[in-house]
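Reopening this ticket.

The earlier resolution said the output was attached, but the attachment link was broken on my side. Pasting everything inline this time so it's all in one place.
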Amino acid sequence: MNVRGKRDFDELLADRRGLLEAEHYRSQVEAIVAAIVTALRAGKKVLWCGNGGSAAEAQHMAAELSGRFLRERPGLHSEALSVNSSALTCIGNDYGYDYVFARQVEAFAHGGDVVIGMTTSGSSRNVVLALEAARRRGAIAVAFTGNGGGEAAEAADIALIGPDGYAAIVQEVHQVMAHIVCDLVEQRLIFDGGIR
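Inline output:
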C-alpha cells in the first residue's frame, strides 16, 4: 500500500472499509472487558501506556473510566503512565527511555490490576517492558497492538491485534475497540452487580 503518494478521499476511505468487520475483535474485547471489570470490582486499578498517538489514546481511555463514558457512576481508578513529565524525564534520564513505563508499573501495579499497553507496531520496547513488568507484579497485561501483534502480543496475557498497516489505521481500530471496551465496562459495573 503506497501511503505517501497523492490519494483522494475515496482511496483513503477504502483503507478503512472492513476494518471493524473482523469478528475476531469480539473475543478480544470480551476478554479485556472481563479483566477490567474483575479488577475494578475488586478495588484494583487500570494503568495505560503508549507513545505518541498511542500515549494520547491511553490518556483518553484512562479518562473515559476515571471520569465517565456515557453514564453517571462513581469514578473508576484508571490512569495513564505518560502524564507525569517529571517521572518520564527522571526515569528516561536515569534508566533510559525503554524503562519509562516499566519502572512506573513496578511502582504502582499490584496483583489483580490491569496494565494496558498500546503500540501500533507491536514492537515499542518501553511498552513491551511495561507488559513484562505487569506480569511479574501479578497484574493482567493487555496489549492493544497491530501488524501481527509483535513482541507486545507475546508479552501480554490478552492481546487485541489490530490490522496490518500504517499507525493511523491501527490507532483508528484501537480507538473504536477501546471505546467499546469502556462502554461495556461501564454497563457491566452499573447494571450487572454494581460498583463496589
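Reporter confirms the inline version is readable. Helices lie at 9-16, 24-41, 53-66, 85-95, 102-108, 125-136, 150-155, 167-191. The chain has a mean pLDDT of 93.
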